[in-house]
Design brief:
By secondary structure, the protein is of the alpha/beta class. Helices cover 40% and strands 16% of the residues. The protein has four domains: 7-55, no CATH class; 81-274, 3-Layer(aba) Sandwich (Leucine Aminopeptidase, subunit E, domain 1), CATH 3.40.220.10; 340-519, Leucine Aminopeptidase, subunit E, domain 1; 561-626, no CATH class. Helix 15 crosses helix 16. The radius of gyration is 30 Å and the shape is globular. The model is unreliable at 64-77, 279-339 and 521-554 (pLDDT under 50). Keywords: Glycosyltransferase, NAD, Nucleus, Transferase. Residues 273-341 are annotated as: Disordered. InterPro entries: Macro_dom, Macro_dom-like, Mono-ARTD/PARP.
């Protein structure tokens, strides 16, 4: 820390900080129970957050740190790790400088061309190390199956390499005029490489900076795109199963620093460890490095890799951690954007908020929104899905229309990564003047029920109706989450296990609305209450024992006759919980929370007194005036 100012104030400041530092206490708890890591990275994160808030402490999850012998052997292999992070799915991602041809993994990825002719760059280096058999296997594949396309990947034997398999990924040739297509195809090449590794149960894989060589992809954009693709793969519902390690490898220091920056930025919410290896002064000296525990300070990291290598003011760099409670709303939003969020209902249905493109989802079902004319080229969601699925999707929509439920048309997914697409014909928002909201609820209900009846395991919703159709974003967030919870409670699904709500990265307002609504119901108590319908057993424990509460049969299942209204029978009584304006309730009695003189003119009391009128206020004043005791 550097202080500047009047000497007396600097001394006071230094003393105060030293007192705080002396009061700090740190300890390490090692949890060696099976499944602990997965638990604390998912549902257990809520408990950790609550603990930190209540006890004013910071809890940091750390992956296993290799001992000195492991670090020394790692350096002796001429492989230096610049960045390491553990994903939410438990996969360890490492950015390393080294020779991919001798990297100790189950599979290495070759940056190949469409003809699989390994005549230059990394492909030639791998061929020389693997032997001529690798080219023969590649030629045989092309002769049998034809040329590959950008974004494709195939797998062959590793031949004389130390790895078991070589995955040949065809990256795109970069084009400034069609940058989005280039990025999309590069992501496809990365994801397909990871899927190929999964198909043969590989536990580790090494990927180079695909397309950054003669294919002309800018190194920084290439690194960012690869990092995004790895994250999307690891965070997807159909994510990694056998893979436990993913290595991004290059032998050029400048490239690997850019890749480390991209990974630390993309995974900033997971606390990546960034190590800047220092150059050896002689052959006998051991490599050393400075580590940064990145907790989301992206700007410093992306700007400061070279300066970090030199050190701050010529001194040692220590651990740097960011407490997210001190972050701005914008930084907290960025943290959610990359990490996502999830709930699990009492009946086991997982509800996930996912930040990405609906057309990239690999769930069994993708829900699309279309207009009455069934033209998929109109609207942001439907046009994106049409472009990814291909023209057969439009023909299928027309041929399958007129099904049992006129508001949803079911088709195959074609070139999408899903089995089925549910095309929802949403009405335009009518400001509650018509049946638009009722129809939207019916569409959500039908999609969930149809997925369950069709034995689908997972389903992705977009933010239905929030685009050109004009539905209020906060209202759709409430309706969608409420209906999913209601479906879980009502239908107790056997097959449908996951409902994903996909929010587009550019729609910041929608993201914020869904995030508020999601976290408003995300606590363990709220989520369980909503999911289980305010479970009768829990209520019986809290209510006084009476003749009406002696058995569970006195309590009915919670029903929701309309949006935001919940009914439950408690013996002869009906309990209703609803959201709305208490002054508009048409019941026999309204309870007003007031003060001892009944003249509280704030909050709910003010609203009630305003609506009740002057006569009620005078009556309250008279009661207080002539009452023998103050209330």
């Amino acid at each position: 820390m550097t202080f500047s100012g009047a000497q007396i104030n600097v001394q006071k400041t230094k003393s105060s900080i030293l007192e705080m530092v002396d009061a700090l206490c740190t300890d390490t708890l090692t949890v060696d129970k099976p499944g602990a890591k997965k638990f604390f990275l998912s549902h257990g994160s809520l408990l950790l957050s609550t603990t930190m808030t209540q006890l004013n402490c910071v809890v940091l999850l750390q992956s296993e740190i290799p001992d000195e012998e492991e670090e020394e052997s790692y350096g002796e292999e001429n492989s230096l790790c610049y960045c390491k992070v553990q994903t939410n799915s438990g996969v360890q991602l490492c950015v390393s400088r080294g020779d991919i041809c001798s990297f100790s993994v189950d599979a290495v990825v070759n940056a190949a061309n469409e003809d699989l002719q390994h005549i230059g760059g990394l492909a030639l280096a791998l061929l020389k190390a693997a032997g001529p058999e690798l080219q023969k296997l590649s030629d045989d594949h092309v002769a049998k199956n034809g040329k590959l396309r950008p974004g494709d990947a195939i797998i062959t034997d590793g031949c004389n390499l130390s790895c078991k398999y070589v995955i040949h990924a065809v990256g795109p040739r970069f084009s400034d005029s069609n940058k989005k297509t280039s990025e999309s195809r590069l992501k496809s090449a990365v994801k397909e490489s990871l899927r190929q590794a999964e198909s043969v149960n590989c536990s580790s894989i090494a990927l180079p900076a695909i397309s950054s060589g003669i294919f002309g992809f800018p190194v920084q954009l290439c690194a960012e795109t690869i990092a995004q693709a790895v994250r999307e793969f690891c965070d997807s519902p159909q994510g990694p199963r056998s893979l436990t390690e993913i290595h991004l490898v290059d032998n050029k220091e400048d490239t690997i620093k850019v890749m480390a920056t991209a990974v630390s930025k993309e995974f900033s919410d997971l606390g990546p460890v960034v190590t800047i290896p220092q150059q050896r002064s002689n052959k006998d000296s051991k490599p050393s490095g400075s580590k940064l525990q990145s907790g989301g300070s992206q700007g410093e990291l992306s700007r400061g890799l070279p300066s970090a290598e030199r050190g701050a003011e010529g001194g040692q760099l220590g651990p740097h951690r960011v407490d997210r409670r001190d972050q701005s709303p914008k930084q907290q939003h960025q943290h959610w954007r990359q990490r996502g969020a999830e709930q699990v209902t009492a009946n086991g249905l997982k509800i996930v908020l996912h930040h990405g493109n609906i057309e990239d989802q690999s769930t069994d079902v993708i829900v699309n929104t279309v207009a009455d004319d069934l033209n998929l080229s109109q609207g942001a969601v439907s046009s994106a899905i049409l472009k990814a699925a291909g023209p057969r999707l439009q023909r299928a929509v027309h041929s399958e229309s007129g099904g049992p439920f006129s508001r949803v048309v079911v088709t195959d997914g074609f070139d999408l990564n899903c089995k089925k697409v549910y095309h929802a014909i949403c009405p335009s928002w009518d400001s509650r003047g018509g049946s638009a909201m009722k129809e939207l609820v019916s569409i959500i209900h039908y999609c969930l029920e149809e997925a369950e009846e069709s034995r689908m395991v997972s389903l992705s919703f977009p933010a239905l109706g929030t685009g050109n159709l004009g539905f209020p974003k906060d209202l759709v967030a409430k309706v969608l989450l409420t209906e999913i919870h209601s479906f879980s409670c009502r239908s107790r699904p056997r097959y449908l296990k996951e409902a994903v709500i996909v929010l587009h990265p550019s729609d910041r307002q929608t993201v914020e609305c869904f995030t508020r609504e999601f976290h408003g119901n995300a606590g363990p108590t709220n989520t369980q209450a909503m999911s289980a319908g305010f479970g009768s057993s829990a209520l019986q424990e809290k209510l006084p024992h009476s003749k009406h509460s002696s058995s569970s049969s006195s309590f009915s299942v919670v029903s929701s006759p309309s949006l935001g209204v919940y009914h439950m029978k408690l013996g002869p009584l009906t309990l209703e919980v609803s959201s709305g304006d208490i002054t508009r309730e048409s019941c026999d009695v309204i309870v007003n929370s007031s003060n001892s003189t009944f003249n509280l003119y704030a909050g709910v009391s003010k609203a009630i007194l305003d609506c009740a009128g002057a006569e009620v206020q005078r009556e309250c004043a008279q009661i207080v005036k002539f009452s023998p005791t103050k209330r």
